[in-house]
């Protein structure tokens, strides 16, 4: 079945089938790495919830989930550099294996902050799983995730949880947004 192209999408970068393969591969790797453990997935809202749900279904070891909501973008398209915790996790993580699940990594500054915050709560380990890393010329992300689904070009990508102004998260594929939509 071909993707129905949304009128605001320039082109489809990753199809539903490609996304499923990426998530299955990550789930298999996490299952292998956490054999005998019960990781806690901490989904970074709002963008991470779609990926988190699919990833958990692809993981075969016992696991649980909690959610954090952070804000570092405000209403813009670039990070402000200031991280605000809008919703914190409610799970006690001392001694737990924590996997922060993020939709996309660009500068990594928000994730670096979250890792430090969670490490201060004395978990057994903290790792990051990101669906995509945005390849930005001249920019090395502040953190190196343990699990990377794919790399995407330095374009405005939406769909599969990724948004622009809270729109397009429901698209079943990842597409590049037409510049006239956000400029």
What would your notes on this structure say?
Helix content is 24%, strand content 31%. Strands 4-3-2-5-6-7 form a six-stranded mixed beta sheet, sandwiched between helices. Strands 1-9-8 form a three-stranded antiparallel beta sheet. The chain starts with 8 loop residues before the first strand and ends with a helix. Helix 2 links the parallel strand 2 (40-45) and strand 3. With 183 residues, it is α/β, with parallel strands linked by helices. Helix 1 (16-33) crosses helix 2 (48-58). The protein contains four helices and nine strands, in the order E-H-E-H-E-E-E-H-E-E-E-E-H. It is globular and about 50 Å long.
In brief, what are we looking at here?
The protein has 183 residues and is an alpha/beta fold. It has helices at 16-33, 48-58, 109-119, 179-182; strands at 9-14, 40-45, 64-71, 84-87, 97-105, 125-135, 147-153, 157-158, 174-177. Helix 1 (16-33) crosses helix 2.
């Amino acid at each position: 079945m071909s993707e129905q192209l949304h009128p605001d999408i320039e082109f489809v970068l990753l199809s539903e089938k490609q996304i499923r393969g990426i998530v299955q591969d990550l789930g298999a790797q996490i299952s292998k790495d956490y054999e005998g453990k019960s990781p806690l997935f901490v989904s970074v809202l709002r963008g991470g919830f779609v990926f988190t749900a699919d990833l958990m279904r692809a993981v075969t070891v016992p696991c649980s989930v909690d959610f954090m909501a952070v804000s570092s973008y405000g209403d813009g398209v670039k990070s402000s550099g200031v991280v605000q915790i809008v919703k914190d996790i409610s799970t006690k993580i001392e001694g737990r294996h924590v996997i922060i699940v993020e939709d996309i990594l660009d500068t990594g500054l928000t994730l670096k902050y979250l890792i430090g915050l969670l490490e201060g709560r004395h978990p057994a380990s903290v790792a990051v799983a990101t669906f995509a890393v945005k390849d930005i010329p001249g920019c090395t992300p502040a953190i190196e995730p343990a699990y990377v689904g794919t790399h995407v070009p330095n374009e405005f990508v939406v769909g599969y949880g990724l948004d622009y102004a809270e729109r397009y998260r429901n698209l079943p594929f990842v597409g590049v947004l037409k510049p006239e939509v956000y400029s």
